[in-house]
């Protein structure tokens, strides 16, 4: 169970440079095809913070095609995780595990001002009372987390995100659903695991979130094993017990997705997705990540928006490890808004 103590630093006495505590916050402006995020990594053993703030609006394999990127890896770590200001212009406040405030004033007339309020209790993937896929044995729980020791502590939180952003002088209102997370554990940059993180937001009464073990040496449609997930349906949070994910790749990027998740109540939720914006995300120098905003169509016909992430740790996927479905289908770079150049 997640408590107020979990928005404080969880740093153990033996923390070295491999210990990490992270926050992820995303936002969507679907009508403008804008996808943005704030990502924070705190490494107490090194005294350093990574803060990554980005906006994308097209399908491209070139980071140059992003609308805005400000990623800094060696900001000083704050003394208090609940409320702090970083040298890059980010101000952060965790008012509770379900409520956050983010303000950022960057460069080139770019800023954001967001209130984030969870629509359910934090989904603790290690609490059997919340997640039916949780493991009672601590070693098994970490092995089964989907991301190894990096998810030794982890919760997901679907939230209403409200506020405003400005990207290079152009302002937008924000009012969307997005699934955020907070993690803590040993997160080495050698031997980091491939993993997938996929969600779909249809309305405040209907959300699907999922975490996947990912093996990019296998053929398209056979890489993913369900680890954790949930459905928010009519205000009720229901844990997932099984799922399938099939992604057809264009290089490392998704070209088409099929997601099915069965919840603890026995209901199965099926949807198909197409990316409307993607780019390579480099949260760690060792791990380029295929990062996409996905337009979803549910089997009932309703439409939603969400995220697809697949992490490709370089020490694992180099040496001809990637399956040819991924390795031989790399796209050329995008040429403009909505560009999706096929091989």
Question: Could you please describe the fold and organization of this structure?
Answer:
This protein has 343 residues and is mainly beta. The protein has one domain (20-327). Helix content is 4%, strand content 55%. The chain is built from 3 helices and 19 strands. The strands form 2 sheets. Strands 1, 2, 3, 4, 5, 6, 7, 8, 9, 10 and 11 form an 11-stranded antiparallel sheet that branches. It has an 8-stranded antiparallel β-barrel with strand order 12-13-14-15-16-17-18-19. Strand 15 (236-250) and strand 16 (253-263) form a beta hairpin. The longest helix has 6 residues, at 138-143. It is globular and about 45 Å long. Residues 333-343 have low confidence and may be disordered. Residues 192-307 form the DUF7064 domain. Pfam families: DUF7064 (PF23212), DUF7065 (PF23213). Residues 151-187 form the DUF7065 domain. This is AttH domain-containing protein. It comes from Rhodococcus zopfii.
- Flag low-confidence runs: 333-343
Distance between the termini: 47 Å
Count the helices. How many?
3
Structural class: mainly beta
Tell me the total number of β-strands: 19
N-to-C order of helices and strands: EEEEEEEEEHEEEEEEEEEEHH
InterPro entries: DUF7064, DUF7065
Pfam family, one: DUF7065
Protein name: AttH domain-containing protein
In short:
Residues 192-307 form the DUF7064 domain. With 343 residues, this protein is mainly beta.
Write the layout of secondary structure elements.
Elements: E1 19-29, E2 34-43, E3 48-56, E4 68-76, E5 83-85, E6 90-96, E7 99-105, E8 111-118, E9 123-124, H1 138-143, E10 153-167, E11 170-186, E12 195-203, E13 206-214, E14 224-233, E15 236-250, E16 253-263, E17 268-284, E18 287-298, E19 303-311, H2 314-317, H3 324-327
Antiparallel strand pairs: 1-2, 1-11, 2-3, 3-4, 5-6, 6-7, 7-8, 8-10, 9-10, 10-11, 12-13, 12-19, 13-14, 14-15, 15-16, 16-17, 17-18, 18-19
Domain DUF7064: 192-307
InterPro entries: DUF7064, DUF7065
Domain DUF7065: 151-187
């Amino acid at each position: 169970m997640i408590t107020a103590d979990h928005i404080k630093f969880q740093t153990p006495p033996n923390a070295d440079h491999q210990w990490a505590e992270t926050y992820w916050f995303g936002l969507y402006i679907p009508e403008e095809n804008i996808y943005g995020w704030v990502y924070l990594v705190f490494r107490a053993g090194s005294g350093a913070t990574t803060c990554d703030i980005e906006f994308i609006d097209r399908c491209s394999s070139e980071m140059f095609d992003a609308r805005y990127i400000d990623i800094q890896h060696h900001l000083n770590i704050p003394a208090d995780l609940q409320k702090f200001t970083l040298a890059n212009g980010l101000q952060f406040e965790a008012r509770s595990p379900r409520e956050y405030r983010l303000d950022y004033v960057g460069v080139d007339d770019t800023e954001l001002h967001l209130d984030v309020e969870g629509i359910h209790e934090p989904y603790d993937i290690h609490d059997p009372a919340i997640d039916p896929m949780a493991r009672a044995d601590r070693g098994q729980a970490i092995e089964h987390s989907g991301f190894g020791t990096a998810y030794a502590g982890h919760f997901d939180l679907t939230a209403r995100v409200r506020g405003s952003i400005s990207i290079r002088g152009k302002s937008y209102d924000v009012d969307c659903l997005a699934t955020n997370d907070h993690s803590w554990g040993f997160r080495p940059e050698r031997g980091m695991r491939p993993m997938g993180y996929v969600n779909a937001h249809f309305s405040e009464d209907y959300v699907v979130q999922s975490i996947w073990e990912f093996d990019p040496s296998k053929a398209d449609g056979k890489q993913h094993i369900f680890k954790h997930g949930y459905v928010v349906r009519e205000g009720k949070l229901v844990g997932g017990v099984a799922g399938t994910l099939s992604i057809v790749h264009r290089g490392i990027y998704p070209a088409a997705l099929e997601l099915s998740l069965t919840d603890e109540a026995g209901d199965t939720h099926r949807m198909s997705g197409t990316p409307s914006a993607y780019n390579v995300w480099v949260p760690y120098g060792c791990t380029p990540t295929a990062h996409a905003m996905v337009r979803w169509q549910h089997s009932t016909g309703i439409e939603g928006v969400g995220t697809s992430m697949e992490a490709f740790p370089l020490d694992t996927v180099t040496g001809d490890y990637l399956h040819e479905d991924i390795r031989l289908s790399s796209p050329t770079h995008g040429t403009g808004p909505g560009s999706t150049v096929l091989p």
